[in-house]
């Protein structure tokens, strides 16, 4: 039977194994904010993670139950809803990125990739040097 129109990547696993593997990967992603895996698994993981983050942004009980169906760990659900999702409040999709890692896995030579959450880190302002402070003071005095 040809696979015309079939969207799901099977990843050489039966459905139950594939769902369990993706659930474990997405749980690890939300716990650690970065997961290293093969490139094909990373491509399959990304849409699932994006969908769960979109549910979490809604934040109601029904959305939390949808997330729990996949994740299966209440602590991870709470972390996703209370910590991770609010950081994506201003972003409409594109919550994750897949980075291709240059090296291949020893043993089977599979291409590796990292999936990470695109959470913006707070910017740290650098301290001004004495020279910059003097220039700033001089500019204020001229005004």
Set out the fold topology:
Blueprint: H1 15-32, E1 34-38, H2 39-58, H3 61-71, H4 74-84, E2 96-104, E3 111-117, H5 130-142
Antiparallel strand pairs: 1-3, 2-3
Characteristic key phrases:
143 residues; alpha+beta; 50s Ribosomal Protein L17, Chain: A; three-stranded antiparallel beta sheet; 5 helices
Descriptive report:
The protein has helices at residues 15-32, 39-58, 61-71, 74-84, 130-142; strands at residues 34-38, 96-104, 111-117. It has 143 residues and is an alpha+beta fold. It has a single domain, classed as 50s Ribosomal Protein L17, Chain: A, CATH 3.90.1030. A three-stranded antiparallel sheet has the order 1-3-2. The model has no long low-confidence stretch (mean pLDDT 91).
CATH architecture field: Alpha-Beta Complex
Number of helices: 5
Strand content: 5-15%
Give the overall pLDDT as a whole number: 91
Order of helices and strands: HEHHHEEH
Name the poorly predicted regions: none
CATH class: Alpha Beta
The CATH homologous superfamily is named Ribosomal protein L17
How would you briefly describe this protein structure?
This protein is of the alpha+beta class. It has helices spanning 15-32, 39-58, 61-71, 74-84, 130-142, and strands at 34-38, 96-104, 111-117. It contains 5 helices and 3 strands; from the N terminus they run H-E-H-H-H-E-E-H.
């Amino acid at each position: 039977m040809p696979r015309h129109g079939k969207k799901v990547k099977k990843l050489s696993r039966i459905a139950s194994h594939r769902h369990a593997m993706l659930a474990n990967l997405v749980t690890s992603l939300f716990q650690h904010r970065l997961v290293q895996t093969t490139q094909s698994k990373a491509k399959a993981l990304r849409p699932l993670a994006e969908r769960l983050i979109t549910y979490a942004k809604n934040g109601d009980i029904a959305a939390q139950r949808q997330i729990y169906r996949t994740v299966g760990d209440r602590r991870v659900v709470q972390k996703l809803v209370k910590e991770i999702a609010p950081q994506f409040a201003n972003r409409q999709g594109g919550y994750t990125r897949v980075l291709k890692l240059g090296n291949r896995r020893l043993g089977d030579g599979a291409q590796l990739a990292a999936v990470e959450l695109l959470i913006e880190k707070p910017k740290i302002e650098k301290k001004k040097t004495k020279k910059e402070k003097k220039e700033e003071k001089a500019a204020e005095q001229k005004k």
